[in-house]
Every structure is written in structure tokens, then in C-alpha cells.
Write a structure and sequence with these properties.
The complex is a heterodimer of chains A (666) and B (250). With 666 residues, chain A is α+β, with helices and mostly antiparallel strands. Chain A has three domains: 307 residues, FAD/NAD(P)-binding domain (3-Layer(bba) Sandwich), CATH 3.50.50.60; 157 residues, Alpha-Beta Complex (Flavocytochrome C3, Chain A, domain 1); 122 residues, Fumarate reductase/succinate dehydrogenase flavoprotein-like, C-terminal domain (Methane Monooxygenase Hydroxylase, Chain G, domain 1). Helix content of chain A is 38%, strand content 14%. In chain A, the strands form five sheets. Chain A has a five-stranded parallel beta sheet with strand order 5-2-1-9-17, sandwiched between helices. In chain A, strands 11-15-14-12-13 form a five-stranded antiparallel beta sheet. In chain A, strands 16-10-18-19 form a four-stranded antiparallel beta sheet. In chain A, helix 4 crosses helix 5, helix 11 crosses helix 12 and helix 15 runs parallel beside helix 17. The radius of gyration of chain A is 25 Å and the shape is globular. Chain B is 34% helix and 12% strand. Chain B is built from eight helices and seven strands, in the order ββαβββββααααααα. In chain B, the strands form two sheets. Chain B has a five-stranded mixed beta sheet. In chain B, 52% of the residues are buried. Chains A and B meet through helix 3, helix 5, helix 6, helix 12 and helix 13 of A and helix 1, helix 2 and helix 3 of B.
């Protein structure tokens, strides 16, 4: 099948408006005859379910958590981008579009990204109308801050809890529709299989996690809003339950996976402390507005710190290496995430890491505290304040900006970041890859759509900070509710989809067999045992730096791991009832298959771009070397039975409005 | 560290539960409380014992899914932390730790330490929203300035994570801190005004229907709240409720 992105013709800035005007409408009377399933209730899922229900469709929404409000969008910290130009710093829709294309290292579609930039402004209006309490200045207007990879302040925020506030806003819109009976909510339900009838997605098999029962749900379209697959690395900033199962089942039923190897490793996370760690915690990118990243300039100082013989506060300014400011003077500490992460790895690999494991760098607020303190002292009219007074004032300002993050850091590490620099290291955070979708957000299975992090469409090879929230809400509120019309307008005479068809029967049977296999396996190792091993393979070979030999090894290792998993995994308890181990087993089985495909994708992409860094393709200074001549395409993989033998389809990327350049933040 | 864990085990909503004892050694200070339970579960699986079931997801104190009554306190010792942020360095080797589910009539037990908190969702559905369609065709976000003080207070109220620690802590199993946080958020913002009266009446009504108790101003909820939601919100809700009861046409 040839991939057709269906990006409308015409000038970039008119594409979306023109397209929206040409999508066939479905009359209100006919919308009542159409059912839509939404899987996942994060920003994309909640907003899509609420919007579609408002428009008149019958919506069923599913989440595996106990409430739609728990979805992992809630954990996003720093902010949401929008081209409002409230700060009058030269921002515009075009600039947001350009920054996103460049930030993504020229591996995303122009048409999609421009649409995202256009609707970004409506998102802020919408959220404020819903009562989302964004940060405001003393005049009562909305405040902004900066994020990496840009030179304007376009990020709206609610302290370090922006994701929480936006999700609760979308959750309230969803609740309004649930209360009206327009959305039927299924919490503690997990999608187990996509049902395809006559080549179209017509429903799902869901598991009621409380009773263990399998349920058949039919619909005229299925929207997968199921987030990313960072948990393939075991340790990531994802929630424990985040998984790829829904997307992977769709992949196995014909939906292509696009650019699966594009993984975002976030530069500022709390470093790994021990073998029993279950997850990693992000320290928001917004901290790089004020924090300076450094390691000791002298190796012996780094060694002394690691041995506990030297304190970072005792290292003189001239013996510190602020390596981002040194290497990238134009953007300094606010370079994009992939660049910052690689730079940290480079210093640590060279022996300058500063914690026991040698895998950590400092994020230091001392300079910002003194700077803010001096400003406050001036405002308060203090003459010749002492350093201690300035510091105390400055700490208050920093607390108001980042208080909850500093508190979170202290709880986890038992170290006070007001008094000594934070220790940070890159960690898996977000996956730019995902299900391939066309301009209408439809996958290669007609009627199956993918929204938010679950699709691949907007961030190319690297996502800019504060753009995930923007994309989730853009897809859910302003894109999918219109674009599903193109597919559904042909379904107004279809009538209710039966759940008694052989396709539903076969899908349910497959799910039952998988479940019984796990329960009766009588192996000897826990699910986590295999998940951790998968994570190690992925982090070592398919992580921040990759090479041909390592990737080939990873494929072989993952295949061996999969065999061992099925032969030896032990799942206790029964299938009928609440059994989280059983649910985890199903998720890890799919993550293992995905891991193999990620390694394959990374192996085939013989270039370095964004989050994908192949050691063979770098400049003498260690910067990524992109190959636009041979790799300016989206890799869309078709499942053929063995993940690493998937069939590659290429969607060539054409750039009519931006010039392909080497990304430079110097 | 060597610990003795006393954990509530209950196979299903209708079954009888009991405290069971599990000695555990090899616990590390840097583990979070839930990582300690993962560690226990791994051992239990190896011994052929069904692992302990508990709710958890984000493990960074924001999703509100984790719960647990630890040594008689919601989310354990320490202030302004959820169970997932509690670390084992708060305990010492030789300690006995009692781990129970959040208990309230409105939070029936599903299994072991996992409870059903869907009553909270139903309270939100009774009015915890502003009736604006999601068309994006609203007024410009900066068209109505909001005094910073009100915006900040609305934000503070809105940081409630819906974990239910307030209910589990309250001797009356009252959900007033939870409900008042949402009611206050909208009550403090201009966008929330048109529906303010109906909102407070409907949400309080739903709270009563769910079987939550009343508030007797003990203040334990505020102390145990991992997000520091202020009692001031309950006072505001009571004022709004009184005003709405007297002036509403309903």
C-alpha cells in the first residue's frame, strides 16, 4: 500500500482552513447514529471524547486507571506552548511552526506542524474559559516563560503542574458529557484487541480489570489516545501503567508504526540511585531558565566529589565547566533536549560525572538565587544588603517559581537544592515515534485513528519542551473532531455494528488464549524480572547513542528474551478477578516485540537526527550528522509476524516552506 | 534494613480480610515505599504467594492513584507527600509497619489495599466543570484579567490530586476538603460565576448521596493532605452553599 499523507494542496497557511471547509459534514440526526470508541483519557483522549460527544456522536471512553483524571498527562510539569505573542517578543504562528520543524531536526510534516501552530492559540483561550488557573502577573494577565530550542517566551504554565491543570480541565469537559449521558465512561478497563471488520476498525475487546471479564464493544471508529511507549526502557519518567498494548495490537492488525526509534531522552531527571528503582522523576525543563548546568573542569575534582571528599560549593567558579554555555553560546542552557542530553553523556563518559555512578551533572541555582535576590533587595530599597540577606530574598523568588519541583527533589534525594546544586542525568521521557497517521490522524487501518503521543506526526526526531501538551489538546479538541467526519460521513447508513460477528468472536478468543497461557505457564520468574532485562538491553544499545553492532546484538538479545519470557514467566492468581501481575504480563509481552522493532528502525536509519544518534554519523565535534539526501523520509513499518522483519514503507518528506539546514544552536 | 510488615489482605469486596505478617530483609534506604512493596511482591512471587494488590501509577505524587494507610496515617509519616514519594529512609531497621487500605463507607475495598474511589468522579460530574463547549471559539484568553491573588488561590485549590487521604483521615469520612477544593477553584475565577450557585448545591448533594460524612472542623484532613489543600476552602464552600441555598430559585 502506498502511503498517502493526504496533506491538502495550497499555501501552507491555508491548508487547514481549506481542508476543514471541505470535510463532509455529518448532520446532527446522523451523528446520533454513529458510535465512537476513545481509548485513553489523557489530554488527547479526554478532549477528543468530550468534543465528539458535544458534537452529537455516541462516545465510549476507556482508561485502565481508576479514574480518567489519573492519565499520565497529569504529570507534565513545565508548560504548554502557544503562539499568542503576549510578550511582544516577535512570536508568531510561523515562528512556532519553524521552531518545531527545526527542533524536530526536519523529520516531521510541514502541513501537520503548521496546523498545530495555528490551533495552539485556541487552546489557551479554551482552557482559560474552562477555568484552568494559569499563572498570571500582577496586572491579572497571563504570564509566560521560555523553553529549550526557542528564543521567545511562549510557554503558558501553572507552576510545575501545568499538565495536571490542563488534564483536569479536559477531565471536567469530559465529566460534563458523562453527566449528560453523551459519554459512557469505562474506568479500570484496558483495551486488549482491535476488531477489524471488512478492513475497517469496528471495535475493541476490553478487559474489565476488576472482574477479569472480557467485553466486546463495537463502534464506527476507534480513536487510540494511549500515549507513548517509553516504558520499553523499564526506567523512564512514564507512569508505571503506561504501555504500548493498544497501539501494538493495532499495529498487528495492519496499522503501520512510524519512526519507532525516535525516543526523547530528557536531560534533567533525577539520576538512577539503585537496582530496585522503579521509575525516574523528571525535573522540569523550565528549571533551565534559571539553573546552570556544569561539571568540574578538572577530572581530579570530579573524582574527589565521587569519593565524597569534595563538596560542589567548594569548587571555584574558574574550575567549573558550564559545558552547554561553552559549546552553545547562542542558546546556552536552553538548547533542545537531545542536544543537552548528549552533552551530559559526553562529559560523563569522559570521566567528569559527579555522583557515585559517575552518571550525573549539576544543575545549579546559586547564580539565579543571587540575581533574583539582588533585584528584590533593590525593589525593597535595601541599602548594601549582606550576601545572606540577598540569598534569603532570592530563595523566596526561586521558591515561588519552582517550589513544588524543589520539594519533590528533596523528598526523593534528601538533598536541599536551595543549598547545593541538584544532580541530574538524562532519562527516557517521550516517544516521538508512534502509529503512522495521515493528515486526518487516521492510521493505515481505516476507521482507526491515533491522537497525541500515540501518533508520530508532529515532533519529527525531537520534541521541543511544552509541545506535548499542545499537541495532545490540539489533536483532541481541534483536529480529530473535524477530521473523523471524512471517514464517518460514509457510514451514516451502516447502522449499529454487531458484536456477534466472527471477527469479534475471533478477537475475543485470541485474548482468552493469551490470558490462559500466562496463568497456566508455571514459570519461575516474575514479569518485572523480564521487563528490567528488556530495559537494560534497550538503554544500553537503543538509548542515547546507537551503533550497528550494538543494534544487531539488541535484536538477537530481545528475540532470546522473548522466548525465555514465554517459557518461564510466572503469573500467580486467577484470570477472573483483579490481577495486576497478569495485566502487566500482557503489557510487557507487547513491549518486548516493540523493542525489537525499535532496534530494527534504528539500525536502518543510517544517519543521526534529533533523539536518534548513530555513533557512525557524527561531525568531528561530536554533533549529529543528518543525511537529507537519503533519509528525509518517515519510516512506516508494516507488521509481518516477526517485529524485526517488518516491511518498510517510506513517506518522503517534502519541505516547501523551510530550507533544510544543519541545526545549529551555537 | 530488616522490617516486619503487617499488611491487610482481602481477596474481594465481599470476602473477609485480615492482617498478615511478612518479615522482609534487604530493604534499602533509597527505595520509595512502593518500591519496597515491589521488592516484597517479587519475593512473594518467588515463594508462590500471590502478590499484594495496591493502586499506583505515576510514582511522582501527582496522579493521586496511590493511597495506603501506613502506621495509622494516610500516605504514612511525613507531611505533604504521597505514599509513592515516601522513602524508606523515614523508617529504621527493626521497625514494624502496618499497611492498610483507605477506609470509608464510600470507598469499598476491591482487593487487598485497593479501594474504589469512583464516588469522587461522581461528585465532579455533579458540577465540577464550567459549561463551555470545546469549540475554541471563546474570547481571547487575556480578555478578562484575573487578580493574581485570586488566580493563585484558585490554583492552590486546583492542585488537589483526588487521592482520598482527606476522607480516609476524617473521623466522619467526610469529602468536604475534596469537594470544596473544586468548588473554590471555580468560585474564585470569573469564568466560574454563572453556574456558581447550582454547582455548590449539586456537588454537596452528590457528596451526601455517596455516603460521605459531614465536617466537624477537626482539621485532620488538611494536616494529612499531600498537597496542603487549605481548610479555608471548606469555609468558602460553606459560605457559597449558604448563600446559594437562600438565594437559588431551585
Amino acid at each position: 500500500m502506498a502511503l498517502d499523507s493526504k496533506v491538502p494542496a495550497g499555501p501552507l497557511a491555508d491548508k487547514w482552513t481549506t481542508h476543514k471547509g471541505e470535510i463532509p459534514l455529518v448532520s446532527p440526526a446522523n451523528k446520533r447514529l454513529l458510535d465512537i470508541i476513545v481509548v485513553g483519557t489523557g489530554l488527547a483522549g479526554s478532549s477528543a471524547a468530550a468534543s465528539l460527544a458535544e458534537m452529537g456522536y455516541n462516545v465510549k471512553a476507556f482508561c485502565f486507571q481508576d479514574s480518567p483524571r489519573r492519565a499520565h498527562s497529569i504529570a507534565a510539569q513545565g508548560g504548554i506552548n502557544a503562539a499568542k505573542n503576549y510578550q511582544n517578543d516577535g512570536d508568531s504562528v510561523h515562528r512556532l511552526f519553524y521552531d518545531t520543524i527545526k527542533g524536530g531536526d526536519y523529520r516531521s510534516r510541514e502541513g501537520n506542524v503548521h496546523r498545530l501552530a495555528e490551533v495552539s492559540r485556541n487552546i489557551i483561550d479554551q482552557c482559560v474559559a474552562q477555568g484552568v488557573p494559569f499563572a498570571r502577573d500582577y496586572g491579572g494577565l497571563l504570564d509566560n516563560r521560555s523553553f529549550g530550542g526557542v528564543q521567545v517566551s511562549r510557554t503558558f504554565y501553572a507552576k510545575g503542574q501545568t499538565g495536571q491543570q490542563l488534564l483536569l480541565g479536559a477531565y471536567s469537559a469530559l465529566n460534563r458529557q458523562i453527566a449528560k449521558g453523551r459519554v459512557k465512561m469505562y474506568a479500570r478497563h484496558e483495551m486488549q484487541e482491535l476488531v477489524v471488520v471488512d478492513g475497517k476498525a469496528r471495535g475493541i475487546i476490553a478487559k474489565n480489570l476488576v472482574t477479569g471479564e472480557f467485553e466486546r464493544h463495537s463502534a464506527h471508529a476507534v480513536l487510540l489516545c494511549t500515549g507513548g511507549y517509553g516504558n520499553v526502557f523499564f526506567l523512564s519518567t512514564n507512569a508505571m501503567g503506561s504501555n504500548v498494548t493498544a497501539a501494538w495490537k493495532a499495529h498487528r492488525k495492519g496499522a503501520y508504526m512510524a519512526n519507532p526509534c525516535f525516543t526523547q531522552i530528557h536531560p534533567t531527571c533525577i539520576p538512577v540511585s539503585g537496582e530496585n528503582q522503579s521509575k525516574l522523576t523528571l525535573m522540569s525543563e523550565s528549571l533551565r531558565n534559571d539553573g546552570r548546568i556544569w561539571v568540574p573542569a578538572k577530572k581530579e575534582d570530579a573524582e574527589a566529589i565521587r569519593a565524597g571528599k569534595l563538596h560542589p560549593n567548594d569548587i571555584a567558579e574558574e574550575h567549573r565547566d558550564y559545558y552547554l554555555e561553552r559549546r552553545y553560546p547562542a542558546f546556552g542552557n536552553l538548547v533542545p533536549r537531545d542536544v543537552a542530553s548528549r552533552a551530559a553523556k559526553e562529559r560523563c563518559d569522559a570521566g567528569y560525572g559527579i555522583n557515585k555512578t559517575g552518571e550525573a551533572v549539576y544543575l545549579d541555582f546559586a547564580a539565579a538565587i543571587m540575581r533574583y535576590g539582588a533585584e528584590e533587595a533593590h525593589v525593597k530599597g535595601l541599602k548594601n544588603p549582606t550576601d545572606a540577606e540577598v540569598k534569603a530574598l532570592g530563595e523566596k523568588v526561586v521558591e515561588a517559581k519552582y517550589g513544588n519541583l524543589f520539594q519533590m527533589y528533596e523528598k526523593i534525594t534528601a538533598s536541599n537544592p536551595y543549598k547545593e546544586p541538584m544532580m541530574i542525568y538524562p532519562a527516557v521521557h517521550y516517544t516521538m515515534g508512534g502509529l503512522w497517521v495521515d493528515y486526518n490522524l487516521m492510521t493505515t487501518v481505516p476507521g482507526c485513528f491515533a491522537l497525541g503521543e500515540a501518533n508520530f506526526s508532529d515532533h519529527g526526531a525531537n520534541r521541543l519542551g511544552a509541545s506535548a501538551l499542545m499537541q495532545g489538546l490540539a489533536d483532541g479538541y481541534f483536529v480529530a473532531p473535524y477530521t473523523v467526519g471524512e471517514f464517518l460521513s460514509k457510514d451514516i447508513r451502516t447502522g449499529k455494528i454487531s458484536t456477534d460477528s466472527p471477527e469479534f468472536e475471533a478477537a475475543e478468543q485470541a485474548v482468552r488464549e493469551r490470558t490462559e497461557k500466562f496463568i497456566n505457564n508455571n514459570g519461575t520468574k516474575s514479569v518485572d524480572f523480564f521487563h528490567k532485562r528488556l530495559g537494560k538491553i534497550m538503554w544500553n544499545e537503543v538509548g542515547m547513542a546507537r551503533n550497528e553492532k550494538g543494534l544487531k546484538q539488541a535484536i538477537a538479545d530481545i528475540q532470546a528474551l522473548r522466548e525465555e519470557f514465554y517459557a518461564d514467566v510466572r503469573v500467580l492468581g486467577a484470570a477472573n478477578g483483579m490481577n495486576p501481575e497478569l495485566d502487566k504480563a500482557g503489557r510487557v509481552a507487547d513491549l518486548i516485540e516493540l523493542g525489537e522493532l525499535m532496534a530494527k528502525d534504528a539500525l536502518e536509519r543510517n544517519e543521526s537526527c534529533g533523539g536518534h544518534f548513530r555513533e557512525e554519523y557524527q561531525s568531528p565535534e561530536g554533533e549529529a550528522l543528518r543525511d537529507d539526501e537519503n533519509f528525509a523520509f518517515v519510516s512506516a513499518w508494516e507488521f509481518t509476524g516477526v517485529p524485526s522483519e517488518a516491511k518498510l514503507h517510506k513517506e518522503e518528506l517534502t519541505f516547501e516552506n523551510v530550507e533544510l539546514k544543519t541545526r545549529s544552536y551555537k | 534494613m530488616d522490617l516486619t510488615l503487617k499488611i491487610w489482605r482481602q481477596n474481594g469486596p465481599q470476602e473477609k480480610g485480615e492482617m498478615k505478617t511478612y518479615p522482609i530483609s534487604g530493604v534499602e534506604e533509597d527505595m520509595s515505599f512502593l518500591e519496597m512493596l515491589d521488592f516484597l511482591n517479587d519475593k512473594l512471587i518467588n515463594e508462590g504467594i500471590e502478590p499484594v494488590v495496591f493502586d499506583h501509577d505515576c510514582r511522582e505524587g501527582i496522579c493521586g492513584m496511590c493511597s495506603l494507610f501506613i502506621n495509622g496515617e494516610a500516605h504514612g509519616p511525613g507531611r505533604k507527600v504521597t505514599t509513592c514519594q515516601l522513602h524508606m529512609r523515614e523508617f529504621k531497621s527493626g521497625d514494624t509497619i502496618y499497611i492498610e487500605p483507605f477506609r470509608a463507607k464510600a470507598f469499598p475495598i476491591i482487593k487487598d489495599l485497593m479501594v474504589d474511589r469512583s464516588a469522587f468522579d461522581r461528585i465532579q460530574r455533579a458540577g465540577g466543570y464550567i459549561s463551555v463547549n470545546t469549540s475554541g471559539n471563546t474570547i481571547d484568553a487575556n480578555a478578562i484579567p484575573v487578580p493574581k491573588e485570586n488566580a493563585d488561590k484558585a490554583f492552590d485549590a486546583a492542585t488537589c490530586i483526588g487521592c482520598g487521604a482527606c476522607v480516609a483521615t476524617c473521623k466522619n469520612s467526610s469529602a468536604m476538603l475534596f469537594a470544596s477544593a473544586k468548588i473554590s477553584q471555580f468560585s474564585l475565577l470569573p469564568q466560574g460565576q454563572p453556574e456558581a450557585k447550582e454547582r455548590v448545591l449539586n456537588m454537596v448533594h452528590q457528596m451526601d448521596l455517596e455516603g460521605f460524612g459531614n465536617c466537624t472542623n477537626t482539621g485532620a484532613c488538611e494536616v494529612e493532605c499531600p498537597k496542603g489543600i487549605s481548610l479555608e476552602n471548606i469555609a468558602r464552600m460553606n459560605r457559597d452553599y449558604l448563600f446559594a441555598s437562600l438565594s437559588s430559585n431551585k
